[in-house]
Structure formats: structure tokens, C-alpha cells
Design a protein that fits this description.
With 147 residues, the chain is mainly alpha-helical. It is built from 3 helices and no strands.
Amino acid sequence: MEENQLKQLEECKSYVLSTSKWLKFFGIFTIIEIVCLVILSISFMLGGSALASTLSGDLPEIRGVTAVTGVIYLIIAGIMVFPTIYIFRAANAGYAAVESNDNAQMVEFLKNIKSYWKFIGIYMIVLFAMLIFILTIALIAAIATIA
């Protein structure tokens, strides 16, 4: 009986270690995503202004659309910082739990994994609600232009 429990424990440790490696990998990609979003945001805000001034008639609508798009990308980048923190905390706690056989670190690993998925779940619900709202507004606008 004891040998079977030890085998299960070693198997769990290998899963935690593997998961921690993937979390670290995913965390690095998330940081790259955040940096790209910030660069994209800045380029939208500055590029839109430059584009509007080079076009004939100096269209202020282009400035407004690109500025709003840039701000939205900046907000998304800011929001993505939080799950990235959870990812790195979980990865570090997972490594520590396996290396030191520390139950407190294992609890920290699982707590941060739970927090990450909870955040992503709420984020998806909000995005889906916004999608439904935008599609409803677009549908109403389309019907209004036809009539």
C-alpha cells in the first residue's frame, strides 16, 4: 500500500514539474504579448495622428478612431498583467514544491493556478458580453440604415 502511494506521489511531482515548465514558457509568451500590445497601442496613437495629417483635408475621424483603438490595446495589455503574475507565481511555487517537498508551496501552486483560471473565466465572460453588446448595436445600426 505504501509503495503505491509513493509511486502516485512521484507521478504527481512529475506532473507539477512539467506544468511549472509550461507555465513559465506561457508566462514568457504572455509578457511578449503585453509588450507587443503596448507597442501596437503606441503605434496606433502616433501613426493615426501622422496618417490624418498626411491625408488631404486632415481627417480628425482617423485620429479619433486610432486613438481609441490605441487606448483599448493599452487597457488590454494592462489587464493581461494580472494573469501573468498568477502564472509566474504558480510556476515558481510548483518548482519549489517539487524540489523541497513543501506542502505549503504546493498549496500556493494550486491557489495561483485556480486564481489564473478564475481570472480567465471572468475575462471570457466579460469579452463574450461585450461581443453580444457590440453585435446587437451593429445589428440595430444595420437595420436602421436599411430602413
